[in-house]
Amino acid sequence: MHKLFKGISKLYGIAESPGKVLRGAAMREVLTMDHAWIWVENGKIKSLGDQSDLRQLDGVHFDEVIDMQQQEVMPGFVDSHTHIVFASPRNEEFVMRIEGAGYEEIAAAGGGILNSARKLQLCSEDELYFDAAERLKWMICHGTTTVEIKSGYGLTLESELKMLRVIKRLKQDFPIKVRATFLGAHAFPTEFKGNPDAYVSAVIDQMMPAVCAENLANHVDVFCDKGFFSPEQTTAILEAAAKLGLRAKIHANELGITGGVQVAVDQEAWSADHLEYLGDNEFQLFAQVAGTETETIPVGLPGCSYFLGIPYANLRRLITEGCAVALATDFNPGSSPVCSLQMIWSLACTQMKLLPQEAFHAITCNAARTLRLENEVGSLAPGMDANFLAFGLKDSISTIPYFFGKNHAQQVYVNGNKVAENGNYLA
C-alpha cells in the first residue's frame, strides 16, 4: 500500500536516518522542511521531500493521495511513563490535598497507591479494560502514538497479572505501539508493612517469573524513594529482572535525594523518572553516561509537580550538562490526572524553563530513547513508522505550548492511517 501525503506547509522533527536522539545544546535545533510531502509504504515512511523533489515520484502508483491542505506536520508523541489502568479516580484525596494534606500524610492514612490497589482488586479485567481503553483514546486524540503503561496498582500476584493482561489487550486492540512495564514494587501492601523484605522476595520469586511466563512485560520498574523501596531492595529486584530479560526503569527522587539515580545508573536502567530532588552528584552521574550505549535518560513529569505542588525536575541543568532529557504525562489517578502531552509541553516551558524546541524533542525522539524505540518512532525519516500529527497552525513548535489547555491536533496518523480527527477517535 503506497500513500502520498502532499500539501504540507512545514515538516518538523526530520531525521536524516532512524535513531535520532538529541542531547544538550543540540535539543534547541529542530530540523524542518517547507512545502513538503511524505511517501508512506506499508505503514513506514518510504521517503519525504519538498516540492523540488516531486519529480522523483513520477511513475509511482499511489493507492491514495492525501492533500494535507497546508497543515503543519510533526512526529507523533511518545508518552514513556503512564499508569492508565486503574479502577477509579481518587477524588477524595484531591479534596484532602486542597485542605493541606501532603502526599506522605495521605498515604499514611490509607490513601495513595494502597487506595488504588484496594479498588483495583475488586474490579474485573473487563471493567479495567473498558476504562483504560477510553483513557487511551483520549491520549491518542491529543497526539500520543506510542505509550508505555505500568502495572503497580495490584500489589498481589493475581491483580498484577490482571493489570498486565489488560495492557496486553490494549496492545492487541489499538494501532499504536504499547509497551508494558511490571511495577509490582510500587508500594508495600499493608500485610507486609512489618516485613517489607518478604514482599521484595515475593516480587522476585513469585511475581516476576509469572509475568515472564505469560510474556506480559517489556520492562520492570521500582518506586525507589523515601518511605518506599530502598536502594538495596531496588537493586535486588532489578538484578533479578535482568536475569529474566526485563529491562529496568525507575521511579527516583520524587520525595527526596534517596539514592534512586545511583541505582538507575549502576543497573543501566533505560530511564530514571520523576527527579524532583537532585544534587550535584546526581547531575554528574547522568552526564557521565550521556551518549553511551547504557545511558540512563532523565525523565521529568511536570504534571505530577503541578498537581501535587512539589518542585519540578531541574531538566534545565541536565540539558546544560549535555543530557538527553525526556518528558511524560505520568497519567495516573492520584498525582497526575493528565492525558495530554501538549499540556506537558506547555508546563515544561512555563515551569521548567525549557525552550519549546527542547520540550518538543523531550516528547518525541528523546522519549522514544527511554523505550529504546528511537529507530522506529519519535522522528520523521525513511524507515520510521509513519506516525505523525497535523496542525492547522503556524509555527506549531511555539504555538502549541503557548496556547495551553487546548487540543491542537487536527489529525493523528498511525502507520499512515488516520486514527483521530478534531478530538474524535476513529480507529
Give the key terms:
427 residues, alpha/beta, 9-stranded mixed β-sheet, 8-stranded parallel β-sheet, 22% strand
Oligomer: single chain
According to DSSP, the number of beta strands is 17
Helix content: 25-40%
Task: Describe the global form.
Answer: globular
Distance between termini? 18 Å
Number of helices: 15
Mean pLDDT: 96
The class by helix and strand makeup works out as alpha/beta
Q: What is the gyration radius calculated from CA atoms?
A: 21 Å
- The low-confidence parts are none
| Beta-strand content estimate | 15-25%
**Sheet of most strands:** 9 strands, mixed
Description of the structure:
The protein is of the alpha/beta class and 427 residues long. It has 15 helices and 17 strands. The chain has helices spanning 91-98, 103-108, 113-121, 125-141, 157-173, 196-213, 231-243, 260-266, 280-289, 302-308, 315-320, 341-350, 356-362, 365-370, 396-402, and strands at 2-12, 32-41, 44-50, 64-67, 72-75, 77-79, 144-150, 177-185, 219-224, 247-252, 271-274, 297-300, 326-327, 388-391, 409-414, 417-421, 424-425. Strands 1, 2, 3, 4, 5, 14, 15, 16 and 17 form a nine-stranded mixed β-sheet that branches. Strands 6-7-8-9-10-11-12-13 form an eight-stranded parallel β-sheet. The longest helix is centred in the middle third of the chain and has 18 residues, at 196-213. It is globular.
